[in-house]
Design brief:
The complex is a heterodimer of chains A (about 230) and B (about 210). Chain A is mostly helical. Chain A is about 85% helix and about 0% strand. Chain A has 10 helices and no strands. Classes of the chains: A mainly alpha (about 230), B alpha/beta (about 210).
Chain lengths: ~230, ~210
């Protein structure tokens, strides 16, 4: 799932490039491409075995094509802004869109949580209680597509994956159950985002990287705690 | 609990009719006919690649047969005990939380199934820290939540030593008596079959003997 996010965020660069080329909102471009990738990945992995290979192929070919498209259609927006995002360029309509995304994802995840857990624990067990693993995978992938779509402009394509992985990894040391891990990971992500903003304002650091760096710091602390426990 | 039919004849829980399963070119299972009746213990043995796991997956409903049909009693409740979980060892989940998969259960129900399977002391332990035998008992406890009509176990004693396997078989037999459920179990070990089995089915692409 982590690499799903990676593939989606890489591929979304193509979405940005195409959106700029056709003069539509970059959210539409990104959401379109991310959704298409989500479907593509779920379909391909059901026919072929190695998920890693498919993700690698899809992520990097879309990244390459996206970079070419960005260069060919060359418009005002720099590649750097797409890769690293620019939280300070966010408008109120962006904020509204992000909140819509947040509400949508919270709703979907809350509704599907039990099914997600069963599907994660064991696929045959899920099937024995009537949970369709493929469907749950697809819904989860669509959620990721929404995350990538709304977060691209602020966090940037390269750092979205960091936000997906690092808070969850840090939360692991403080969690005994998946519910708690989800809550703690969200809290750590929130602290990282706020802390990053403060660092950006006070120290003039780039905002996105500052946020990820703070999450990484929390991760290191959580590891130390884990070792102290052992 | 399924009702007995009029004449006191055991009711049939699942029927497979002429089931064939195929992956790629060669069939894994051919022309399998099988009836699982209420309350009986059935052990399926066969060498690797004989289609045991496929047969079990057809029985649970996870795998649709290529041809043939699977019929089951109305409202059939299956308690499935997987051979292992797909979780990697970093996934945080306690034994108590596992009992809540897929649906949360009351503390009272959790205590009841934990006492039957002897895992009451393990509630706060992470799944990843359990021994093979403890994990099997935890998965078994989860499966009997909600009083299933049939328990299905995939190689439950793999990785257990002989006394461990014997103790586990005894537990299964006790549970069958306590809950009145049918049990269907898959094993690759042709030599050691649970003595409490009512029927043993030898499988090698088709049913060789019963």
């Amino acid at each position: 799932m982590v690499y799903f996010g990676d593939a989606l965020s890489h591929a979304s660069i193509l979405g940005v490039a195409l959106a700029m080329a056709f003069g539509v909102s970059i959210y539409i471009g990104v959401a379109g491409i991310a959704g298409a990738i989500a479907i593509l990945l779920v379909v391909l992995t059901s026919k072929w075995q190695s998920m890693d290979t498919i993700l690698g192929v899809v992520a990097h070919s879309f990244l390459a094509v996206g970079l070419i498209a960005a260069s060919v259609f060359g418009t005002g927006v720099s590649i750097e802004a797409i890769l690293f995002g620019d939280i300070l360029a966010v408008t109120w309509s962006d904020v509204a869109l992000i909140w819509c995304g947040v509400v949508a994802i919270l709703g979907i995840v809350a509704a599907r949580w039990r099914n997600f857990i069963v599907a994660t624990v064991c696929d045959d067990l899920a099937a024995s209680v009537g949970v369709r693993v493929k469907l749950e995978q697809f819904i989860l992938t669509l959620c990721l597509a929404i995350v990538v779509g709304v977060a691209l402009k602020t966090v940037g394509a390269l750092l979205i994956t960091a936000f997906l992985i690092i808070p969850a990894a840090a939360a692991r040391s403080f969690s005994k159950t998946p519910e708690r891990m989800a809550a703690v990971a969200s809290a750590i992500g929130g602290v990282g985002a706020l802390g990053g903003l403060v660092a950006s304002y006070e120290l003039d650091w780039p905002a996105g990287p500052a946020m990820v760096a703070i999450c990484a710091l929390i991760f290191v602390v959580s590891r130390l705690r884990l070792r102290a426990d052992v | 609990m399924p009702k007995l039919s009029k004449g006191g004849i055991m009711s049939v829980l699942i029927t497979l009719q002429d089931v064939t399963v195929q992956y790629g070119a060669s069939p894994v299972l051919e022309h399998v006919n099988l009836k699982i009746k209420h309350g009986e213990i059935v052990t399926i043995v066969g060498p690797n690649g004989s289609g045991k796991s496929s047969l079990l997956r057809v029985l649970t409903g996870a795998l649709a047969p290529r041809t043939g049909t699977r019929l089951h009693a109305a409202g059939l409740k299956i308690g499935y005990v997987p051979q292992k979980l797909m979780l990697d060892h970093t996934f945080p989940i306690t034994v108590r939380r596992l009992l809540d998969v897929p649906w949360p259960i009351s503390t009272k129900d959790a205590q009841a199934v934990s006492e039957l399977t002897g895992i009451s002391q393990l509630w706060d332990q992470q799944i990843s820290t359990l021994s093979g035998g403890q994990l099997q008992r935890a998965l078994l406890a989860r499966a009997i939540v909600g009083r299933p009509d049939i328990l299905m176990l995939d190689e439950p004693t793999q990785g257990l030593d002989q006394p461990g396997a014997a103790a586990f078989y005894q537990l299964i037999a006790d549970l069958r008596d306590a809950l009145g459920c049918a049990v269907i179990m898959v094993s690759h070990d042709l030599h050691v079959v649970m003595s409490a089995s009512d029927r043993v089915i030898c499988l090698n692409g088709h049913i060789c003997c019963e």
